[in-house]
Each structure stands twice: as structure tokens, then as C-alpha cells.
């Protein structure tokens, strides 16, 4: 069966050479977590070219966990499909989504709630238990950003025995000197909201993404390392809201000096300029 793409974003359809199966995992607080399982297509042509190494790999699962405010699409980028790469090597690939990310919802069907990073760790523990109970096997854990930090946190829990290997990608515990450190003053304002609408914001900014130097892209990737079309695709499909309690835990609040911070002011001006330029272009073409 094809992956469930009922979420509202423009989901990336995987290659026809592999298939997806949807799992629903019960976690604490009534949350039902979505996890996709991808394997090689079972058609005769695919089986015919399967190597002995690929057959051996298929007995092993590689789990990719997304970072904060992201979802499974992090690993399914057109032209750089990490899921497809590992499936091609013969592995079973798992892409779970933490509560309030992607298709993971609570019993009321809502995407949001008041919870913290500790609850994300509960989700991760539930995912490992579920897969072990289902298959009797552990996983090779690869976590991007917060997904890697959560993986490291699991080493302090009994479920650590279900992790065969642990790999972290861009999982920084400190933001000093990074682009993210520059926006710390914004958190006092964001903390007044029940959640930060990062998903809606990124979809709104998608048309100008990776078109202006040092704009919002500064916080997502090095522009020279990513195709603009791919970057804009990720803006549309790969971002989720961040709830207030998580923001409090991930970053410490700082003095409110937004307009006095030249980096923040510069970013605001660049985004404003980009939106104005985009609107003028649209109007002139219509």
C-alpha cells in the first residue's frame, strides 16, 4: 500500500520501488503516534535484482526521527531521498512522528496540547517497545536535530536495549554562536502564545524561500548546499507548530531586545522586502 498522505501538506510521494505501511502507536496522554514502515517493492522485477546483502539488510530496521517542529518529510526530500536510499540497500525504514507532528494526534483528533520534551521521550520509548513487541528486533536509530538528542536520552531508559546503533545528525545541545541564538529574544513574545505557528509561517514564506540571501533560510540550511526548489518544498511540507512548554525547555528566555538586535532587525527587513518584491512580481504578471 502507498503511504498515508491525508495530512494537509503537499506530501512527497515515494518511489514506486518501495512501499509504505502505516502503523499507529499508543503513547501517554492519549496520543496516537503515526509511524510509516518502508520496504522494497514486492514485485517480481524488484525481487529479481535483489542482492544477497540487500536480503540480509531487510532483516534490519533503520529508524529516522525528525527534529523539533518537523515531520517524516525531513527524510524524503525530492532528489535526496534518504528513505529511498536505505530501502534500496534492502533495509526496512521506519519514520515515526512525535506527538503534534505530522499525522500524530491525541484522542480528540487535535494536533496541539500542553506537553514537554519529556513527553517526546515517552513517545520514543513507546515506539521502541512497539517495534520490539511486533518483530522481536531492535533498530538502528538515526536522529536529526532534536531526534538525535532524544535518542541520546533513551540511553538512560530500559528501552536502550532495543537500539542497535545510534547516530545523531546536527543535534546541538548548545546554540551559542549559531543563527538560532540570535532569535532567543523573540521567545519572550512567543511564550505569550499557546503555540508558535512555525508550520503556517513557513508555508507563508515558501514562495520567497531561498531567493534572498541571509533571510529566514539562515536558520534552516546553508543556501549554497540546497536547491531552492527543494528548500521551498520543505517549507511547505516539513514544519509543524511548537507548543509553549517545549519552547520553554529547549531555549531559555532572554531580555526583550528584539528591535535592538541588529541581526533580528536585518532578518525582519529582508523578509519584508522579499514579500513586497513577490507581491509586486505577482501583480505585474497578472
Structural features, described:
- It is a single chain.
- The chain has 286 residues and is α/β, with parallel strands linked by helices.
- It is built from 10 helices and 9 strands.
- The strands form 2 sheets. Strands 1, 2, 3, 4, 5, 6 and 7 form a 7-stranded mixed sheet that branches. Strands 8-9 form a two-stranded antiparallel ribbon.
- Helix 4 (117-135) crosses helix 5.
- The chain is globular and about 45 Å long.
Could you give the topology of this structure?
Blueprint: E1 18-26, E2 31-40, H1 44-48, H2 52-57, E3 61-65, H3 82-88, E4 92-96, E5 105-106, H4 117-135, E6 139-144, H5 146-154, E7 163-169, H6 187-190, E8 195-196, H7 198-205, H8 228-237, E9 242-243, H9 244-250, H10 262-285
Parallel strand pairs: 3-4, 3-6, 6-7
Antiparallel strand pairs: 1-2, 2-4, 2-5, 8-9
Helix pairs in contact: 4-5
Number of strands: 9
Contiguous low-pLDDT stretches (5 residues minimum) are 1-14, 253-265
Principal-axis shape equals globular
Helical amount among residues, as a percent range?
25-40%
Proportion in β-strands:
15-25%
Distance N to C terminus = 41 Å
Rounded average pLDDT: 76
Q: What Rg do the Cα atoms give?
A: 20 Å
Sheet/helix structural class = alpha/beta
Largest sheet: 7 strands, mixed
Encode the helix/strand succession as letters: EEHHEHEEHEHEHEHHEHH
Q: Helix segment count?
A: 10
